[in-house]
Specification:
The structure is a single chain. By secondary structure, the protein is of the alpha/beta class. Among the domains are: 2-39, no CATH class; 51-108 and 273-369 and 583-646, FAD/NAD(P)-binding domain. 27% of the residues lie in helices and 18% in strands. It is built from 15 helices and 24 strands. The protein has helices at residues 2-17, 23-39, 80-89, 110-113, 167-177, 184-194, 227-238, 272-276, 279-282, 337-347, 353-358, 400-415, 520-537, 564-574, 626-646, and strands at 56-57, 70-76, 97-100, 127-131, 144-148, 195-197, 217-219, 255-258, 287-290, 294-302, 308-316, 323-334, 350-351, 365-366, 378-385, 427-433, 462-467, 471-472, 477-478, 483-490, 498-500, 511-513, 576-577, 609-611. A hairpin with a 5-residue loop joins strand 10 (294-302) and strand 11 (308-316). Helix 5 (167-177) crosses helix 6 (184-194). The radius of gyration is 25 Å and the shape is globular. Mean pLDDT is 93; it is low at 1-5. Bound molecules: flavin-adenine dinucleotide (FAD). Residues 76-82, 100-103, 146-150, 153-155, 157-161, 294-295, 335-338, 340, 344, 427, 579-580, 613-614, 624-627, 629 line the site of flavin-adenine dinucleotide. Monomer. The active site is at residues 580, 624. It is found in: Secreted.
């Protein structure tokens, strides 16, 4: 009860301090806000879902070409990269762009817009319900693998953590692809191009001069952060992980800090849709955005040189609805993400010939790497009892007072506009470390030299992060007591898997198999990471906030007492996705060795077809993947505009 009153008093105090409220306006303002919401609908963005307006219906008795259905570039997938690409390309009024997105608007969904809400979308029609193949090294479990089906793609459902990887990652990309334009010294300009960093008085050490200041993607510190997550950073310093003011700063990404987020100053999620498909962009005559439009195949003709040329795409609202075709005068770009882009290539006849033939698909181009080299970051969660019984457990209310607290949170967020608990993104603080750092893992306790899978000497291979409370099954299951959680994941796993066709039917989701922890190296590094998390939990000031006397078996207060063999069993039981699959259409120099696109992101062996999304990462980045997806799209848009203007 005291907490509830405190919550309400605090709302009122903050609102008064900020001049949001007078006593009378408290009542009348709330009533007015609700009335306005009920009476006026928000202006609808200009998206088309009637596909008659964007393509020619297949099967109609006409062969005539119609300019109405011709575009210069067709982008397949309005996700993180796709929206950015469509927006930047259509800045040139001479490029007619069609963006086709399988889902609807993410911006229209309250659970996407509100930072805390995304878990509520996981088991809905707005998310593709993937399950992995049984994971042989993880007790045979089939893992839930959400991929967004909406504009903004996974940027509309992600945890909003804005860390972009290590500079060395991109130098490694450049040397593998044989193209310096991907090296950090060149490519970094696209990270600053997409971002608008909002300085915060509590974080004066962030060097704003090296951050983007005028891009469409707002990043900053507008999400809420718990005291335990602040204490986590201090405890990291206590175990010799240096504090860093900025994971994306000039000193690279190693260290511990609060993490920046893709949350704007109104405490709303920043997605690729909200950042790039603004009303001004959508008003462009040369940009058409169609929603509920699933592309079922890429259309090819044979070019004059006898090489297959992508000339358009086929798409439909659903399996049972009519199909449509649109032509791309210049090119088709796949931005369907790390699972769907290879899937679309495969069902269109580009991929390993034997696999295509087995499924009865005509081979347009035998390209062995399509769908191969799948890599994802495997995560292990650790759960602790919150000693102060202060967590936001009431978000899943179980009692009358929980309901009151939840109502208070809703009022803070939706009516007073002051953020509060609903502005929480889960991942609050983090640490990026190397598993061979002798200051963190002294050789007398960790004598074994493990394989170095990092991209450079100053790149990490482990990330730890904290969340305000613990959960299981991707947020479906909360604990019955107040909790806090730590997590560790492998940034540079050596286990890889594949995306494979289940059939030639474009509506049947492909098989995904990340092959989690199938190498000894991966297991050994995760054991180190788990040990480190458990040590941090026992280190002040975090230790004082956790109830280490609470030794219930489903919590981890005694896990540090276990042997490596016992920890390995825990890891195999608990390992999950941290939702970062990449590399299934790998950029690289050699199509015979599994590369799918060249350094210009053109698909090998065909003309007029590129891929632009997380699938092209030659190696997974040492961190969170959305930033690189934005940057790739920014770079490709610049490159294409330059190509066209010089042609
Ligand atoms: C739950 C979750 C949490 C995450 N947390 C973070 C985080 O905190 N920070 C971070 O940096 N990264 C995070 N990530 C990862 C990051 O969001 C993704 O790596 C990134 O957004 C992928 O971008 P993309 O452009 O490759 O694909 P996506 O953004 O997935 O876009 C693909 C789009 O293509 C559409 N599409 C697919 N098939 C078709 C088709 N046939 N026809 C038409 N459209 C199609 C999809 O509907 C989707 O909109 C998270 C991801 C998830 C799922």
């Amino acid at each position: 009860m005291a907490n509830v009153i405190q919550d309400f008093l605090q709302i009122i105090r903050i609102a008064f301090e900020r001049g949001h409220l007078t006593p009378r306006s408290l009542v009348s303002g709330a009533a007015l806000a609700l009335l306005i919401r009920l009476v006026f609908k928000r202006p609808k963005p200009r998206y088309i879902s009637n596909l008659e307006q964007v393509g020619r219906r297949v099967g109609l008795n006409t062969t005539a070409r119609d300019e109405k259905w011709e575009y210069d570039i067709i982008i397949v997938g309005g996700g993180t990269s796709g929206c950015a690409l469509a927006s930047r390309l259509s800045e040139d009024p001479n490029i007619r762009v069609l963006l086709l997105e399988a889902g609807g608007s993410g911006r229209a969904l309250s659970d996407s817009r509100t930072p805390i809400g995304y878990g509520g979308l996981f088991f809905t029609k707005h998310v593709y319900p993937f399950r992995t193949e049984p994971q042989a090294a993880a007790n045979g479990k089939e893992k839930f693998w959400p991929r967004a089906k909406m504009l903004g793609g996974c940027s509309s459902i992600n945890a909003q953590m804005a860390q972009y990887g290590a500079p060395g990652d991109f130098d490694q990309w450049a040397s593998y692809a044989g193209d310096k334009s991907w090296a950090w010294s060149n490519f970094s300009r696209y990270f600053t191009k997409f971002e608008k960093y909002n300085p915060h008085p509590d974080y004066p050490l962030v060097d704003a001069t090296v951050r983007g200041s005028s891009g469409p993607v707002n990043v900053g510190y507008f999400n809420t952060v718990t005291n335990a997550s602040k204490a986590f950073v201090k405890a990291c310093v206590g175990v010799n992980i240096p504090f860093t003011p900025d994971f994306n700063g000039p000193n690279g990404t190693l260290g511990a800090s609060r993490i920046m987020t893709y949350v704007d100053k109104k405490y709303r999620r920043v997605s690729s849709e909200t950042a790039y498909l603004t009303p001004e962009v959508l008003a462009r005559k040369n940009l058409t955005v169609a929603v509920n439009a699933t592309v079922t195949r890429v259309l090819f003709e044979t070019s004059e040189a006898g090489v297959p040329r992508a000339v358009g795409v086929e798409f439909a609202n659903s399996d049972a609805r009519p199909r449509y075709q649109a032509r791309a005068e210049k090119e088709v770009i796949l931005s369907g993400g790390a699972i769907h882009s290879p899937h679309i290539l495969l069902i269109s006849g580009i991929g390993p010939a034997a696999q295509l033939e087995r499924r009865g698909i005509q081979v347009i181009r035998d390209l062995p790497g399509v769908g191969q080299n799948l890599v994802d970051h495997p995560v292990v969660d650790m759960y602790f009892k919150d000693k102060l019984n202060n967590s936001a457990k009431y978000l899943r209310p179980k009692s009358f007072w929980d309901v009151v607290k939840l109502t208070s949170a809703i009022v803070q967020y939706h009516i007073l506009g002051i953020g509060g608990p609903l502005a929480m993104n889960f991942g609050e603080s983090a640490a990026f470390i190397r598993s061979d750092d002798p200051d963190v893992f002294p050789t007398r306790y960790f004598p074994e030299k493990l394989l170095d899978s990092t991209s450079a000497k100053d790149s990490p291979d482990l990330e730890l992060f904290s969340t305000a409370f613990a959960y299981k099954e991707h947020g479906r299951v909360f604990f019955d007591v107040h909790t806090f959680a730590l997590h560790v994941y492998l940034l540079r796993p050596t286990s890889t898997g594949a995306v494979l066709l289940k059939s030639s039917n474009p509506w049947e989701l492909p098989s995904v198999n990340p092959n989690y922890i199938s190498t000894e190296e991966d297991i050994k590094k995760l054991i180190r990471g788990v040990r480190l998390c458990l040590q941090i939990a026992q280190t002040q000031p975090l230790a004082a906030l956790l109830d280490h006397e609470f030794t219930r078996a489903d919590l981890d207060h005694e896990l540090h007492l276990k042997s490596d063999v016992e920890l390995e069993a825990v890891i195999r039981e608990r390992v999950e996705t941290v939702y970062h699959p990449t590399t299934t259409c790998r950029m690289g120099p050699d199509p015979e060795k599994g590369d799918v696109v060249d350094a210009g992101l053109r698909v090998y062996g065909v003309v007029g077809l590129r891929v632009c999304d997380a699938s092209i990462f030659p190696f997974i980045v040492s961190g969170h993947t959305a930033g690189a997806c934005y940057a790739i799209a920014e770079k490709l848009a610049d490159d294409i505009k330059a190509e066209y203007s010089s042609a």
